[in-house]
Design a protein that fits this description.
The protein is of the alpha+beta class. The protein is 52% helix and 17% strand. It folds into 2 domains: 9-134, Sandwich (Immunoglobulin-like), CATH 2.60.40.420; 140-382, A middle domain of Talin 1 (Up-down Bundle), CATH 1.20.1420. The model is unreliable at 4-36 (pLDDT under 50).
Length: 383
């Protein structure tokens, strides 16, 4: 989900979360011989990404990322032997803020850390060595294992429906049936938005499917949903629109195949639930995700649904370890849903451009309030 920096409400929606993370821990214990004795600190700037340790034993790794630069940044841990497979990520780290990422790495090997100033490009990367091996949480804990299996079933159902709806969308494009394609557009994207953290683990597929025009990098072809969105709502269908639609179907099919083979951890669920709300704060709140169709609220609902799906899978674990957190999550999900329901029109939503600034600010506040307890889920799962 490498997308450009967002400002205004997107930053404010992360402020409470960042403040809480900063407040919850002081400086970590010192590290010796490159091995971390506490959270691995990452000092990000506009031109550097300083990681306090270059080596860590396999298991749950905690990175604490402080943005000392002037640009919004992201932090990634990329997989062993695969510079595009994302093990964990944290996005939308505004200047002056600190965020925390807990990621399970059970296998030893050479990984990569990366900071992405302006949330674009390949990032400032460095090798990171994980030594030894560790039992996966899903192997050691039956509840975590069932949570991962339950969420895998959810992802499978969503990717299957996503492929079906994408084919319908492409068929309408190729038939030059603009009205049908417009009607199908938001309906198709629902399934992608629900599982976007899973899609984002495949660094090549996510931008091919979902890159926004403003985020296209030099030398990168503008493809996927947003290219076709522009064709439908702004420029009219283009000579290569059918080819773009065919490529989209192929990429979505590949995504389903890769997702079905992916072994998710319980921490992936926790981090995914939080990152989906980051998506809302970063794109949907600002209205920049669906810049041509203005169907952002449909995406917003899907992100909330996906976050709830991950939390539902983790619910038995969370209820046992921190029942108060479950109650808070339920209440704040409900508050966001109430605001969304107020903007429904038939079986869809109002256009984002029809909302008042007051309504948008209420959404931002509700997302901010939900982000705070979501930020605690990974730590509960990890312990």
């Amino acid at each position: 989900m490498a997308k450009t920096a967002r400002t205004g409400l997107a930053v404010s929606a992360g402020a409470t979360l960042a403040a809480l993370v900063s407040a919850c821990g002081g400086a970590p214990p010192s590290a010796a011989n490159g091995m971390p004795a506490g959270p691995i600190t990452v000092t990000a700037s506009d031109s550097a990404c300083q990681v306090s340790a270059t080596t860590a034993p396999a298991g749950n790794l905690t990175f604490q990322i402080a943005n000392h630069g002037t640009k919004v940044t992201e932090f990634y841990l990329y997989g062993d032997g695969d510079g595009d497979r994302i093990m964990g990520e944290v996005e939308n780290i505004a200047p002056g803020l600190t965020r925390r990422l807990i990621v399970e790495v059970a296998d030893g090997g050479t990984y990569q850390t990366a900071c992405k100033p302006e949330m674009a490009g390949a990032g400032i990367r460095s090798p990171f060595t994980v030594t030894g091996g560790a039992a996966k949480g899903t192997d050691a804990n039956a509840q975590l294992a069932e949570a991962a299996r339950g969420y895998a079933r959810y992802v499978s159902s969503q990717t299957g429906a996503f492929a079906d709806e994408t084919r319908k969308f492409a068929t309408a494009i190729k038939a030059k049936d603009v009205a049908a394609a417009k009607s199908q557009y938001a309906r198709t994207r629902i399934y992608y938005e629900r599982i976007e953290p899973v899609a984002a683990k495949f660094g090549d597929l996510d931008p091919a499917i979902d890159v926004r025009e403003a985020d296209v990098q030099p030398g990168q072809k503008f493809t996927g949903f947003h290219r076709l969105e522009k064709d439908l709502w702004v420029t009219g269908l283009q000579p290569d629109s059918a080819a773009i639609a065919d490529r989209l179907v192929a990429d979505v099919t590949t995504l389903g195949q890769k997702a079905s083979a992916l072994q998710l951890s319980a921490l992936d669920l926790a981090n995914g639930a939080e990152s989906l709300l980051d998506e809302v704060a970063r794109g949907k709140i600002t209205g920049e995700e669906e810049a041509f169709s203005h169907t952002d609220l449909s995406d917003f609902q899907a992100n909330v649904d996906g976050s709830k799906g991950a939390i539902q899978a983790l619910r038995p674990v969370l209820a046992q370890r921190n029942p108060a957190l479950v109650s808070t999550l339920d209440a704040r999900f409900a508050a966001v849903q109430t605001l969304l329901d107020a903007q429904r029109t038939g079986d869809t939503f109002k256009l984002y451009t029809d909302l008042t600034q007051s309504q948008i600010k209420k959404f931002a506040a509700a997302v901010d309030a939900l982000s705070e307890p979501l930020s605690k889920v990974a730590e509960v799962v990890a312990h």
